[in-house]
Write a structure and sequence with these properties.
By secondary structure, the chain is α+β, with helices and mostly antiparallel strands. It has 40 helices and 65 strands. It is found in: Cell projection, Cilium, Flagellum; Cell projection, Cilium, Photoreceptor outer segment; Cytoplasm, Cytoskeleton, Cilium basal body.
């Protein structure tokens, strides 16, 4: 709170002061000290007068209106009076001879009560100058008193008596108290039922300890309230509100009690406001505030919320403490006196005076100070000191004006500060003033004076300097006015609104309203204004087009209007009263065509806040303290943080942005919400406000391609009505769209819209007016719709109207003729309809008319049309309904419907024409009847059997089975019973006639488990073990199946053993496995079986390691017996199986397979004449000759011959020498014996050196037939075509066996061979024409204990 002034006088120093504010107005402050004078100051601290007294002032008081100050002093019997209006003092002789001690003016009249030190009383009536002396009212000094609103006077005296007297001085009530009374006050105690007797309670402090309550209506039951000792003495108390008392205590406590009988004695509020002491309290009813002083500070509370501290004023220079506290009646000023003789006055409430110009504010910040600020543009505040306390303020771009009554002072706001320009007097008291850059307009006594502010600086014409409105001839009073940059606008009591254009110095617009116009509020540009009329209704008026729009939900308590100053929100304004702010939006360009005002929402206005400026949803308000406070309107809550809000709040914010046309903010909200409905709502709002570009953005965002394309097509349209029509159509407001189209430059668009919407009635009406040539085409479309809805009468009429008889529209006319034909038939004019349909080229029309006639049971005409339209199935069907079989027979070659053929067949069968019936049944695909006719009537079982076999007809098979059963052909009967799924009947038949083998062969794999079990049990009973075992296996009974297989006698093919192995393999049962192994090993019958069965058993059980060991044994036996191919195949199959199962291949198996394969390759190479390769393989075989015991001599002989042919003389000699051993010599073929002996006798040790190739693992060069690398000690993969080791750069794999081969050699081999060397599978289907660059493959060889494996770094391996 701002300190206004401080009063200090030398004569006052060190003593307490007595002071009184002028009542009601508060313009004067009377102060007295120990200097025998009363000094009178104005509210700004200026001394106005002084009253000299013969002694110190005893008491002083102002009358109820503040016109007269009365003072009494020591050593004087006179009453000193000072007139506030004339500033003249006067004296009144009291006539009392004893010293006066008390003085008080009445609250309601002009009565002055004066008490004396001896208890006498004087009542003086100022109006009549009548004095009423009352002697002996009290026996001792009267010390305190109070007037009531009923003019009762309560007095307290040192005689411990309290009296209540009327205005004549007659005692009405009196009571005694226990100690000296003080602080007497009148009030009303709080009761349940308010009494109408006025202030009926007298309260008085007794002995500074208790509060005594004396009810005049109940004098016998006074109430005395005592308080806690720690509070100290009662310093002061005040009544307020509904019977509440606030009490201040000397120890700094501040207590509130209620006088209601149920609450009395209870403290409602208590605070220790001051640490050491409290000296005074005061209450301002107008401010609703309470203040207490003590120590060196003042604390102010709000009476509505006492717990909250409203303000604290610290007076650090008052070290001796504070004394007395007092408010002016209006609550503007608070005075506090101190113990050291100073008086401080603080501003607690200012008149709310302010004005705006654009975003510039001017507000009264002190009684004689105006502050000009522009926070929006960041200007520094300017303080203007004014000469008088103003009643009005006006601010412009360059000036500020303040005024009081009929006078105004003008100041220039320059860069160098504030400069006073002039003051001006008007012809009456100024009610309001507005200024712009050059002119000021003042409203006074129903007139407005428009004048220049700085006329001396402008070379203007004299008549443009000032003008008085209205003119002399205008018999009206101006009630309100406004001044914009270009216009003076005013409203009169006759309802006229005048716009005066200052530039041209003439009226440019006039609007006449029905009732008087009270207030006017133009927007910053002056193109729109809001006015409030005498009925308190609000309207938006646009002078540009003279249009008026009522403001909806306009409260009758509205005090003013503010327009939004943010350029984007041009159409937004607020209306405010004391409690609330209402936000309105003026929507100008919408698809509705006409503008309108909508209420966007309301915002609660804090107490005593006056709105001054609205900018971007932020409302700047002036408060009682002279400061400004900013409030965000609830309709602009989206300006705060959106992301911290909940989903419902964000949805509400989106609605606000759309109301305010803040589409950019709405876009951001939609991005946060991420909800399709929110985007759709934004899109609809953009369409409503004709924001086409923004709507395109929105619909592109949501992926509405159709809407985006439609808007792109219309976005360049300049005709507002046409554009609005399109947008209204997009929002499904078709009637509005039609009105807009018709008002546009392209009215035909309305017709096109109605046609597209199939609103045919509207389209025809529009076509008559806009495009008569379109009527036939619209009629046709309308007729189609009417036909669809069943309105055939109107459809026929419109089809007939649709005829153009123009060759250009032949297709259109044909469609109309077709419609006429259909409608004629439906209307019963069958002849016309049929004739039209026959003449018409359309097949579809004939079908449609035929269907209609068929529904009408006009079968002959329907069939005729079907036949003409080549719908033979339909025609035949209708002819059948007519029993016209002759016609059906004619159409039968063209008929495709089985149903019709079936009907025809039944008719022919009934006539006994069985061949034709059989053919018709066959055409109808009714095979059962075909079979029946062949068997029952045509005696042709061969054809019946053929049909059953071809069609697999179940019912047909049953018929044939019954036929064969009648012939006792049980085998055939069983076959067809199985085919017809009659397995039980077939089984019984087979059982009865010993045909079970036939049944078992026929049933195959299509039977159920129960069928298989039945067959197995039958064979078990017949001791046919193989068949019994087979069917027990099929039904999953592996134990019984194995039992029967093992009982079978041994045969050449040993099928039973094979089946037993399959059984054990499926069962995976250890007991069954052991049982079969015992059988194979001969432990059950002493006859060991061939080892190959054991091998197959292990394979069936997937025991691959055991199978591998068995395979090696088998291969060894085969090899010993000379069956090298068999041994090779056994090892190869086992090798590939182990590879598939990813099981390590035994080295013995790999070695044996390699040696056997080398032996097989010899024949291939020798056959192809490649003796060197054959010799190399024979050398490898001969080095392992012990593995070929049956053919040692032939192999060695072959080795000698091939080595000799290949030039490997030394190898030939070594093998020849081996043959010369005694055990081999006599076994040599006589054909070669002599040559070999000669070779041994004359040895030739020359040898063709073997080529070397790199190791595929380590690239070590080694002989190409060597399979063990000396460098890396790896067993090397070998080529299946040559037997040589593999080389990385010449690698391929066989597509049949996946074994590696040298690509170049394999390709040469396949030129003469057709089978895989290792697997004997054909490879002729694989192309050998591979490109040379495909040979360049990079291979990565990974060695492991399991063997070798190959991985490709790319996909260019040539697979053959």
């Amino acid at each position: 709170m701002k300190r206004v002034f401080t009063l200090t006088e030398k004569a006052w120093q060190g003593s307490t002061l007595q002071y009184r504010w002028q009542k009601t107005l508060g313009n004067y402050l009377a102060v007295t000290g120990p200097d025998c004078t009363v000094k009178i100051f104005d509210r700004h601290g200026q001394k106005k007068d002084e009253i000299n007294l013969p002694g110190n002032c005893v008491a002083m008081d102002w009358d109820k209106d503040g016109d007269t100050l009365a003072v009494i002093a020591d050593k004087s019997s006179s009453i000193y009076l000072w007139d506030a209006n004339t500033h003249k003092p006067s004296q009144l002789d009291s006539g009392m001879r004893d010293q006066m001690s008390f003085l008080l003016w009445s609250k309601v009249g002009s009565l002055l009560a004066v008490g004396t030190a001896k208890g006498n009383l004087l009542i003086y009536n100022q109006q009549t100058s009548r004095k009423i002396p009352i002697l002996g009212k009290h026996t001792k000094r009267i010390t305190c008193g109070c007037w009531s609103t009923q003019n009762l006077l309560a007095l307290g005296s040192e005689d411990k008596m309290v009296t209540v007297s009327n205005h004549e001085g007659d005692t009405m009530r009196q009571t005694t108290v226990r100690a000296e009374p003080s602080e007497i006050q009148f009030s009303v105690m709080k009761t349940d039922e308010r009494a109408a007797s006025g202030e009926s309670t007298v309260s008085v402090v007794v002995g500074k300890k208790t509060l005594f309550l004396f009810n005049l209506n109940d004098p016998d039951n006074p109430i005395e309230l005592a308080f806690q000792q720690r509070y100290g003495n009662i310093i002061a108390y005040r009544w307020y509100g509904d019977g509440y008392i606030m009490i201040g205590f000397s120890q700094g406590y501040f207590v509130v009690i209620s006088t209601h009988i149920r609450e009395i004695g209870q403290e409602l509020f208590q605070a220790h406001n001051h640490k050491d002491s409290l000296t005074s309290i005061a209450i301002s009813q107008s401010l609703n505030k309470a203040a207490s002083c003590g120590d060196n500070c003042i604390k102010i509370h709000d009476l509505s919320e006492l717990k909250e501290m409203y303000a604290i004023i610290n007076l650090d220079d008052e070290t001796k403490g504070l004394d007395h506290l007092s408010w002016t009646d209006d609550g503007q000023l608070l005075a506090i006196s101190s113990q050291r003789g100073t008086l401080h006055v603080f501003l607690t409430k200012l008149p709310i005076l302010g004005d705006t110009c654009g975003t510039r504010l001017a507000v009264l910040t002190s009684l004689l100070e105006v502050t000009v600020a522009n926070h929006v543009e960041g200007e520094r505040p300017i303080t203007v000191s004014v000469e008088v306390e103003p009643n009005f303020i006006a601010v412009g771009p360059y000036h500020i004006a303040v005024g009081m009554n009929n006078r105004a002072w003008f100041y220039a706001l320059g860069e160098n500060g504030v400069e006073k320009l002039k003051d001006m007097e008007y012809l009456g008291t100024v009610a309001s003033m507005h200024i712009n850059s050059d002119y000021a307009a003042a409203l006074f006594e129903g007139k407005v004076q428009l004048h220049m502010i700085e006329s001396e600086h402008l070379e203007a014409q004299e008549e443009r300097e000032t003008r008085l409105f209205p003119g002399r001839d205008d018999k009206c009073r101006i009630l309100c006015h406004a001044l914009t940059a270009d216009f003076l606008i005013y409203g009169t009591d006759t309802g006229l609104i005048h716009c005066f254009y200052i530039e041209d110095w003439q009226y440019i617009n006039e609007y006449r309203h029905t009732v008087s116009v009270k207030k006017i509020f133009p927007d910053p540009n002056g193109t729109r204004l809001v006015f409030i009329d005498d009925k308190s209704d609000g309207f938006v008026y646009c002078p540009v087009n003279d249009s008026l729009y009522e403001v909806p939900n306009f409260s009758p308590t509205i005090k003013g209007i503010l327009w939004e100053n943010w350029p984007v929100d041009k159409g937004v304004f607020i209306a405010y009263d004391d409690d609330k702010v209402y936000t309105y939006v003026f929507h100008k360009d919408t698809i509705q065509g006409s503008s309108k005002v909508i209420l966007a929402g309301g915002t609660k206005l804090p107490y005593s806040h006056k709105p001054l400026l609205l900018y971007n949803g932020e409302l700047t308000c002036q408060t009682l303290s002279g400061k400004t406070n900013n409030i965000i309107l609830s309709t602009h809550s989206f300006m705060s943080s959106v992301k911290d809000s909940g989903n419902s709040d964000q949805t509400r914010m989106l609605t606000q942005t759309l109301m305010l046309k803040r589409f950019t903010e709405a876009w951001e909200l939609c991005k946060v919400l991420n909800d399709h409905s929110a985007w759709t709502e934004l899109g609809r709002a953009c369409l409503h406000h004709m924001e086409v570009e923004f709507a395109i953005r929105v619909y592109r965002m949501v992926g509405n391609v159709g809407m985006v394309m439609s808007l792109e097509q219309i976005k360049g349209i300049e005709d507002q009505n046409l554009l609005a029509g399109h947008l209204a159509m997009f929002t499904n407001d078709f009637n509005q769209a039609q009105d807009l189209y018709l008002a546009s430059s392209c009215p035909i668009a309305a017709l096109e819209m109605r046609r597209d919407l199939q609103h045919w009635d509207s389209a025809l009406q529009l076509a008559k007016r806009l495009a008569p040539k379109q009527i036939p085409f619209i009629s046709k479309e309308y007729a189609i719709q009417l036909e669809f809805t069943g309105d055939y009468v109107n459809a026929l009429a419109h089809y007939e109207k649709g005829m153009t008889s123009d060759n250009k529209y032949q297709e259109h006319d044909e469609a109309c003729l077709a419609g006429v034909a259909r409608m004629s038939v439906r209307m019963g004019d069958i002849r016309r309809g049929v004739n039209q349909a026959i003449k018409h080229p359309s097949r579809l029309l004939k079908k449609d008319c035929g269907a209609i006639l068929e529904g009408m049971k006009q079968f002959s005409e329907a069939a005729q049309l079907y036949e003409k339209g080549q719908y033979y199935d339909k025609a035949a069907s209708v002819y059948i309904r007519c029993k016209n079989w002759a016609k059906v027979g004619e159409l039968l070659p063209h008929v495709t419907s089985p149903k019709i053929h079936l009907q025809y067949a039944k008719a022919k069968e009934a006539d006994g024409r069985y061949k034709e019936a059989a053919m018709a049944y066959e055409n109808a695909k009714d095979w059962d009847n075909v079979i029946r006719v062949h068997l029952d009537h045509l005696n042709n079982p061969e054809e019946a059997v053929r049909i059953v076999r071809e069609t697999q007809s179940i019912d047909g098979a049953k018929i044939v089975a019954r036929f064969f059963l009648s012939l006792n052909d049980y085998g055939s009967a069983i076959q067809f019973l199985v085919m017809s799924k009659c397995n039980d009947e077939a089984f019984q038949l087979a059982q009865q006639h010993s045909q079970m083998e036939v049944y078992a062969d026929i049933i195959g794999n299509d039977a159920t488990m129960e069928d298989y079990q039945s067959i197995a049990l039958y064979f078990e009973g017949e001791k046919k073990h193989l068949q019994a075992g087979k069917f027990f296996l099929l039904c999953g009974q592996h134990g019984r199946a194995l039992k029967h297989f093992l009982k079978c006698p041994n045969t050449e093919d040993n099928l039973a053993i094979e089946m037993a192995i399959e059984t054990v393999g499926q069962a995976k049962d250890e007991a069954l496995t052991n049982q079969l192994i015992d059988y194979l090993m001969g432990e059950s019958d002493g006859m060991p079986k061939d080892a190959k069965y054991l091998f197959r058993l292990y394979m069936a059980l997937k025991q691959y390691r055991e199978a591998a060991r068995t395979a090696i044994i088998i291969a060894r036996e085969e090899q010993s017996a000379g069956n090298y191919r068999n041994a090779h195949d056994v090892l190869f199959s086992m090798y590939t199986e182990l590879q598939t199962q990813k099981i390590k291949i035994p080295s013995e198996m790999a070695t044996n397979l390699m040696i056997l394969h080398s032996y097989i390759l010899v024949k291939i190479h020798v056959k192809r004449g490649d003796h060197l390769k054959g010799a190399r393989m024979l050398i490898r075989v001969s080095n392992n000759i012990s593995k070929f015991p049956s053919h040692i001599v032939p192999i060695l002989t072959s080795s000698v011959i091939e080595c000799h042919r290949a030039g490997l003389k030394n190898s030939a000699f070594s093998f020849a020498a081996m043959l010369m051993r005694p055990e081999y010599r006599n076994k040599i073929d006589l054909k070669y014996k002599k040559k070999i002996e000669a070779m041994v006798r004359r040895p030739d040790t020359s040898e063709l050196e073997e080529e070397t190739k790199p190791c595929p693992y380590c690239a070590f060069q080694l002989p190409e037939c060597e399979l063990l690398c000396p460098g890396c000690k790896n067993n090397l993969p070998y080529c299946i075509a040559t037997g040589r080791h593999m080389v990385k750069e010449d690698w391929t794999v066989c597509p049949h066996c996946d074994f590696p081969a040298l690509y170049s050699e394999f390709k040469i081999l396949l030129e003469t061979e057709t089978v895989c060397p290792i697997r004997s599978g054909s490879v002729m289907g694989i192309s050998c024409a591979l490109r040379e660059q495909d040979l360049k493959v990079n291979l990565r060889l990974i060695c492991s204990k399991e063997g070798w494996s190959l991985f490709c770094d790319n996909q260019n391996i040539p697979l053959l």
